[in-house]
Fold MFS transporter.
Amino acid sequence: MDQSNVSTPSRGAGLLLIAAIFALALNLRPAMAAVGPLLDLIEAATGMDSTTASLLTTLPVAMIGVGALSIRPLRRRLGERMGILLGAVLIGLACLARWPISSTGGLILSAVVVGIGVALIQALAPVVIKRAFPTRFGTVMGVYTTGIMGGAAVAAATAAGFAEAFGWAVALALWSIPALVAAVVWIIASRNPVAEETNRLAVVEGTDPEVPFWKQPRAWALVPILGLGTSAYTLVLAWLPPYYVDMGQARATAGFLLSGMTGAEVLAGVLVSLFIARFPDRRGPMLLAVALALIGLAGLVLTPVSLAVPVMLLLGLGIGAVFPLTLILAMDQIDDPVRSGDLLAFVQGGGYIIASLSPLAAGLLRDRLSDLSQAWMLMGLGLLVMAAITLTFRPGGAKLR
């Protein structure tokens, strides 16, 4: 796409667009984050075992991956503005359905629909960000990822209290309200021309890349980086509260620990947004983030209760920085907003399918061993692999086409 014809929004319109993106981001994780602190209640009410219950996280994450892989034809048909709106509406309706339809089948179906909605937003929002804020892309991406972590933190902190006051099904359904509010805010903010590809015909008839991403090894290398980094996030999101409940901690305490960890993730996202422009070589910040996450995972195995607070802090800072850094690293590889969005969809497609396996594997381990320590150790090995692959992305190297 010729970026010379793309103008940045005015200050007021830009702030409104950032606010809408932040509001949308807040809704990308609560449908999953609120499940963990209530998992024992859900299992007791529905008769799910741990493997089946893991599908409430595994399926949305898998659908994010599948949806990302098919986002290009969807964008051609819907455009970014309508695609993001549809995603927010799907999240809202899926959450709302968890109140009247709280059976195993209903919860699993809602998890699939949530995943589709999240996939639409996650694949399209970065394209809008890069087009609207080309000189502040890293900063606005940091705001976006901070919103994602912030929504998870609030959901984890409030789940137990809402469940005690209204029941677990209503506690899950309440997250329909901010999702539908975000849809309204997006309708208003996305009237700005930069929220939509102005030359839709060029996208439809467009210029397919000479070399598809699946033929480029550098694109494939990004897949496990995002996949393994996100695996750590989804694993902790799904199984950290049950891990502490299994050790005799109160449900509310387990939820607050997850909330504290995601609060540290929010802090990490803010730090990334503030300082990432100073690090054109993304490898240094990434390796530091991985090191913090590894120390946190070790703490979960060795001192999960006695040092719970510092463990949550280190784990949150590490995982919270890994997530935006992987997205920024992927978007660094191509300058054109639409083409870089296609790359991110390809990377997220494979990456989220990989990430969906970690909650499922942990559920299987819990059913068979009644312990999640092995899951934390396996995740540590995965992060080491991710760090090794990241080292190959030297700044100034050949970019993708």
Summary: DSSP finds 16 helices and no strands in the chain. The mean pLDDT is 86.
